[in-house]
Amino acid sequence: MTYLMTNLLPPLHEGHAPIYLHQAFHHAIEAYEDWESGQAEPSVTVNGKPTRISIIFRRLWNCNDIIPNHTLDAMRDVVPYSYIGPEEWDTVERFSHGARIMRLVLQERRTPSLPLIIYL
Fold first, then answer.
1. Residue 22 and residue 46: Cα distance in Å, rounded?
2. Which domain of life is it from (predicted)?
3. CA dihedral defined by 27, 33, 35, 40, rounded to 10 degrees?
């Protein structure tokens, strides 16, 4: 029997992701950091195909694998303190938690805030 891979990013296997998805997550954080206001959502290459960073963050939403320190450091560089304070970083151990944080900050950047208008 032949199976066609219709999905670019494979499903997790019992809560675990292949190493290339871990690497894609790290590259997605770097792409987020370089993302300038007004530009389209960045993509990174996964298996030779451009993939939006939101898709990578969503794929690791339930990943139980432990985040390496260099990836946590990259997250600390881009996540504002209003989302997670310095003392809370000790609780971020798994890709699932990191992915949820990154999706939250990505959504905030994607949704432009409207100017406050006060009528007198």
1. 11
2. Bacteria
3. 50
Report the C-alpha gap between 88 and 92 in whole angstroms: 7
pLDDT digits (tens, 9 = 90+) for 15-58: 667 888 889 999 999 999 999 878 899 999 988 889 999 999 99
The candidate with the shortest Cα–Cα distance to 26, out of 60, 58, 64, 70, is: 70
Greater confidence (67 vs 81) lies with 67
How do the residues of the chain divide into helix, strand and coil, expressed in percent and rounded to 5? 45, 10, 45
**Would the pTM count as exceeding 0.85?**
no
Backbone angles phi, psi at 46, to 5 degrees: -125, 120
- Dihedral pair phi/psi, residue 94, rounded to 5°: -115, 155
CA 60 to chain CA mean position, Å: 8
User: What string of DSSP letters covers 105-118?
Assistant: HHHHHHSPPPPP--
Measured distance CA(26)–CA(22) in Å, rounded: 7
